[in-house]
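Contributing new complexes? Match this layout with beta-D-glucopyranose.
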Amino acid sequence: MKKILAVFLVLLVAGSLFAGGIKDKASAAVASGSAMIGLAMPETHVLRWEKDGNQLKAEAEKRGYRAEVQWADGNQSIQNTQIQSFLTQGAKVLVIGCINDGVAPVVAEAARDKVQVIAYDRLIQNSGDYDYYITFNNFKVGVLQATSIVEGLNLDAATTAAPKNITLFAGSPTDGNAFFFFDGAMSVLNPYIDKGVLKVVGPYPKTSADTANFARIATEGWQAPVAKTRMENLLSGDARNVTLDAVLAPNDPLARAIIEACKADAKYRTKLPVVCGQDAEFESSMSIKNGEQYSTVFKDTAKLAEAAILLADQILKGQSVNIPGAVLASGDLQKIGDTGRKTVKAYLLDPVLVTNKNLNVPVDAGFYTAAENAQLK
Ligand code: BGC
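Output block (do not edit by hand):
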């Protein structure tokens, strides 16, 4: 009996070692560089994406993966070709920052090949063929932008007798994020507008659900020249007989384009409107330091890239997902992951408001080069 038990125990241990060995071998294959991660970034005309792509590649290689990154120049068909090439090369995971929902057919191809897709920063809309999305809390980005306008205008002390004037801009209507940024901002501004202490000059969509007015304030392709022209038209049109106190600008390149348009108008030569932004681009941080742009929103994209590759790693290894520093969207925030076809799991990182009081935040996070840091001092 003892002998049988001993043999049984030996077999059990050997069996579990063997199974463990298989599992280790599988993880080793994933980790040894045999698995490829394809990184598809949307554009380079907004600076962050260049960094995002390079950081994602570095993070993937740090974890032992083969990685390739491509930027698509704001053109979805170019990106689709790039993604198809990743699939041909045998990519096991795709991390995609898309341009618009025209990416859905290649996401479907990936799903047919059992390739996992992670929507990166931007939701892939109108697709039911993927499960994961990693981004920042985009509604909060808008809340922070508007909070800085409330602060910059001292709106809590404003009166109906002397209301402040604001004009509204939104990001690209092809990018789901633009809607969340705007709705977050309007959740803060609408009460002041309703009270009559803040007046909107130009189109006023109360929320992005007012699609006709949202289209009028949106900036196709996040193109700064488009925003600049629209601002110039506003200054000589709807805003000709008023002085604008603030502009809701959805990101830094658009904020700087808006400021440039204002600077060409004599009315704003001594006092610019309060203009918010997003991305903590170095040029905008300098502009904040120099008292032109009022605020930006810092999203630590190095952390986003790190989190996205950790997510890819955990998915590939069949582990349960646990991303330190990110929360799984729940409650109201769950709609951040609603593609229109399904609700994917959305992991959210936290954005931070930056004004001239805390320009050190992106600096301390290592967001800029040493030379840039020196200029921001
Ligand atoms: C990103 C922003 C960026 C914008 C334009 C958005 O989807 O979240 O960080 O400024 O696209 O590229």
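Reviewers usually confirm one structural detail per submission. For this one: Residues 4 and 10 are 10 Å apart (CA to CA).
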